[in-house]
Design a protein that fits this description.
This protein is mainly beta. Helix content is 8%, strand content 58%. It has a 22-stranded antiparallel beta barrel. It has a 5-stranded mixed sheet with strand order 14-21-22-17-18. Strands 6, 9, 12 and 13 form a 4-stranded mixed sheet that branches.
Length: 901
């Protein structure tokens, strides 16, 4: 009996235990799925565990060996217990396992780390994608591709999930087990969904996630869709729409960045400096958009790999060429025609890219010019590139650029004299030829040493030259009464002159990208430039003959004809460091040495920028940058002229130097929008200004005695709001800034501080693009600037000798009126059987705002008649002075046809 009772009691206990297990198991599973709001700050492991146990009912089991590297800080909403633990132990060597109502904590075994590296390219053309993002989804580690499309990311072994993304492309997704160093070349396909167009910034390199500030990536699609004069999409005109950037003279392509001058911008074409980036005196730039792939603007926070200018870096990269298919573009507009071709030479091995542009105004106007006078002007650009892939590790790029402006004028005049006893025939002939342009040839070699080390070596030749030839010929031929030519009465006079200036460089540069771990991206390298300056070389010849005998034949060489040589060396190193989840630094040093005329200038230029992320959508940044500049541009005109002269530093003229401090805040909490606010202060030393009364106009003779070195400063606030996603995209930028100069020696403005020529207090830029459909889109830009400054004589005073001189109280004493302009464009796209056609209709300065480009004073004398006491009339002359304001670019409509195949 007792035995049966004992068996029943055991069975009852077993049933009760099974009921409890099956009853509690669903509750435990339910607890795992419950989403919690959890907040804790600077907590130890014990405190974190105790608070989580009180909040969830789970109990933790762990040994005393388990320790945190740093206190736990979390502020999360609606997260499961597993997600909370994943966030808390993300950077810790702690593992966890949930078993029922218990959570077991253990020590994480140290795993090996391996590197994933490769190139990211377009799936159709094999064009490398610069600045593409790579993210490991589980560990939230990431990187981006360098200017040649290469990336490297070091991760722990095990399950790996990589996401590859790029502006306008579908996101690539790859899952695999990482067990060794892996080469993974990714091909991304374009994303044709209209609502997913992103403009202005690539977030990994230039947005809230980047360490650098004052940096913008400008997509080529945005440049092509921005309204421009005569429908000519222009890179520099689009850059002028950014906060902190001004155009100088309204409608021209000069860049004045944060109070700097036009010579303080380093414009790079595939890493090679451009000394003259303008066509047609600055109305257009030399960059044909069809040949370009990526444009990056640095206004501050300059990485250590850049040097040589004070105010900005414009880094422009060209297309490499399609390795799979042949395609191209033909464009015809009012002013220019363009042709772009690219394709494979050897499929998957070698490709080419060729782009040409030329104006044809001279060809159209030629039949309508008079026979005795001929005017001719044109410009052209040629870009060519060959890309050869030796292997997955080695690539070679050969590139060439040639651009030229040409102007010539020819006049022939002939008449006879039959009014005396010695009739004569007179013949006059004059001709002017004016040419200027750039020539660049470069070879680049990429080599991947291993999965963590990438190198690029560049050898280049760069030549800018301006030449002007002037010739004049006069012939007088005598004749007798019957009209027979008499050689005894022949006379001739011939004058020829040739004026040239320019600069050419030979350069060598090698750069290395080293990515040892995900938290460090190290760049270092060296470069050498050999400069040859030809400020001006003038040669002239005079030849006279009379009655068959040479009276004079003389060649003149200007005494200032000379070459100036300069050697420029530089070394740099920089490291982009992630310190924890919130803080990142970019620290670097740029060392440079410039040697000329037996004197050397050595400079150490520190660069540092920092970013602190308060939340995922809010960050603050700060930076300090020192820059040095060894070349100067001598100019006396408010617009870019080919007669402007490049000259190096000398024994007396020291290098320009700047110290820039900047801070900013960035917010992306509104979906599809990005907001930024940046402030800066820039101190410039050894800036040049002409002494009062001195000008150049193409003559460098004695230039060192005509300039003065002084200090400049500029400071301001820049606000940018961007809409980055959707059918309607664009940005609104506002800048409030001040810039001035001071020269204490007294030869400029009596040593007093005065406003800089392009000191404009307020600047507003609005750019909107809207796509109605795949067939139609429109672009609108509106620009508002308060006026710059000019020096205008206030009155004329007499001297003891009776001469009149202008009285000017101080330099840049006149404030120009405000300027504003509206540009419109609409594109009509149509898909054809073989390709796509686009009609572009643009209106530059749509409401014909008569903004003055030039201002000067003009005097005229007005006669007033009155009757004298004797009854005779007399005229009293009065001098009247008028201020003349000229507008060069009124409302200009245009139509452009483009065919892509």
């Amino acid at each position: 009996m007792n035995y049966y009772l004992y068996c029943l009691r055991r069975l009852f206990r077993l049933i009760l235990l099974l009921w409890i297990v099956f009853r509690i198991a669903p509750l435990a599973a339910q607890d795992r799925a419950v989403r919690l709001d959890f907040r804790i700050s600077q907590a130890t492991l014990d405190t974190f565990v105790r608070q989580l146990e009180d909040s969830t009912g789970f109990s933790f089991i762990y040994s005393e060996k388990i320790r945190l590297r740093k206190p736990v800080t979390l502020d999360v909403s609606r997260q499961t217990i597993g997600e909370i633990l994943q966030l808390a132990f993300e950077k810790e060597a702690i593992t966890f396992k949930i078993s029922g109502t218990h959570i077991l904590l253990g020590e994480q075994t140290v795993s090996s780390k391996y590197t994933v590296s490769g190139y990211i390219t377009d799936a159709v053309s094999s064009e490398t994608l610069i600045g593409a993002n790579i993210l490991e989804a589980r560990r939230h580690a990431g990187t981006s591709t360098n200017p040649f499309g290469f990336y490297s990311l070091t991760l722990p072994e095990g399950e790996t999930e990589l996401l590859y993304s790029y502006l306008g492309y579908e996101t690539g997704h790859c899952r695999f087990v990482l067990s060794r160093d892996t080469v993974m070349n990714i091909r991304l396909r374009t994303d044709n969904r209209l609502e997913e167009v992103v403009v202005l910034s690539n977030k990994k390199e230039t947005g809230i996630r980047a360490t650098a500030m004052s940096t913008l990536d400008i997509p080529m699609t945005q440049i092509r869709n921005t309204p421009a004069i005569l429908g000519e999409a222009d890179i520099l005109k689009t850059i002028q729409l950014m906060p902190g950037v001004q155009a100088g003279t309204e409608g021209f392509s000069g860049l004045y960045v944060r109070g700097g001058g036009p010579d303080q911008n380093l414009i790079l074409l595939d890493g090679i400096p451009i000394y003259n980036a303008d066509h047609m005196l600055g109305v257009f730039s030399i960059f044909t958009p069809e040949a370009m792939k990526k444009v990056t603007l640095f206004k501050g926070s300059f990485p250590a790999r850049y040097g040589g200018r004070l105010s900005s870096i414009v880094d422009i990269r060209t297309n490499d060429g399609d390795m799979q298919n042949y395609h191209g573009t033909v464009s015809v507009g009012f002013l220019t025609s363009k042709l772009h071709l690219e394709g494979p030479i050897l499929k998957d091995k070698t490709s080419f890219c060729l782009t040409g542009r030329r104006t044809y105004l001279d060809l159209v106007a030629r039949p309508f010019l008079p026979e005795d006078k001929k005017y001719n002007y044109y410009f052209y650009d040629i870009n060519a590139k060959i890309n050869h892939k030796f292997s997955g590790r080695s690539r070679l790029f050969l590139s060439f650029y040639k651009g030229k402006d040409h102007y010539d004028y020819k006049q022939d005049k002939e008449y006879d004299n039959n009014y005396d006893y010695n009739p004569r025939m007179y013949l006059y002939n004059s001709r002017i030829d004016f040419n200027w342009g750039n020539t660049i040839a470069a070879g680049r070699w990429n080599y991947v040493f291993n999965s963590k080390l990438f190198s690029n070596t560049t050898v280049a030749y760069n030549h800018y030259q301006m030449g002007m030839a002037d010739s004049y010929r006069k012939e007088i031929t005598g004749a007798d009464k019957n009209g027979t030519v008499m050689t005894d009465y022949n006379e001739s006079f011939v004058y020829n002159s040739d004026y040239r200036s320019g600069i050419h460089d030979w350069s060598f540069r090698t750069d290395f990208d080293y990515m040892p771990v995900p938290n460090h991206h190290i760049k270092y390298g060296a470069s050498y430039l050999y400069h040859t300056f030809r400020p001006e070389v003038t040669t002239s010849r005079v030849k006279e003959a009379a009655n068959g005998q040479t009276a004079q034949d003389t060649v003149y060489n200007d005494s200032s004809n000379s070459y100036l040589h300069g050697h420029e060396f530089s070394l740099y190193a920089e490291d982009n460091i992630d310190i924890g989840d919130r803080l990142s630094l970019n620290a670097g040093l740029h060392l440079s040495l410039f040697s000329t005329q037996g004197k050397g200038y050595l400079s150490a230029q520190p660069r540092i920028s920092a970013r602190y992320r308060f939340q995922n959508d809010f960050a603050a940044k700060a930076s300090f940058t020192q820059m040095e500049q060894y070349v100067h541009l001598l100019s006396s005109s408010p617009i870019s002229l080919p007669t402007d002269l490049w000259v190096p530093v000398t024994k007396e003229i020291r290098p320009m130097r700047s110290f820039q401090y900047a801070a900013g805040a960035y917010y992306t909490g509104v979906k599809g929008w990005e907001f930024s606010l940046e402030s800066y202060y820039k101190d410039m030393r050894n800036v040049l200004e002409y002494q009062d009364g001195a000008t150049f106009f193409g003559s460098s003779g004695g230039w060192q005695e005509k300039v003065e070195m002084g200090r400049g400063r500029s400071f301001g606030l820049e606000i940018l709001a961007q809409k980055t996603i959707g059918k309607t995209t664009g940005w609104l930028g506002y800048t409030i800034a001040k810039s001035d100069r001071q020269f204490k020696n007294g030869t400029v403005n009596n040593g007093e501080r005065f406003p800089y020529k392009y000191d404009r207090r307020h600047n507003i830029n609005l750019c909107i693009n809207h796509a109605f459909s795949k067939k139609t889109d429109v672009g609108i830009t509106w620009i508002f600037n308060t006026g710059g400054t000019a020096t205008v004589a206030e009155q004329r005073t007499g001297t003891a000798s009776g001469n009149l001189i202008d009285y000017i109280s101080h330099r840049n004493n006149y404030r120009l009126p405000v300027s504003h302009r509206l540009n419109l464009s609409v594109n009509f796209h149509k898909k054809l059987r073989r390709g796509t056609q686009t009609w572009n209709i643009s209106i530059y300065n749509a409401y014909n705002a008569m903004t003055p480009n030039l201002i000067y004073k003009e005097e005229e004398y007005i006669g007033v008649q009155h009757i004298k006491p004797d009854g005779n009339y007399d005229t009293l002359w009065k001098r009247k002075t008028r201020l003349i304001k000229q507008t060069l670019l009124p409302c200009v409509p245009s139509i452009t046809y483009t065919y892509r195949f």
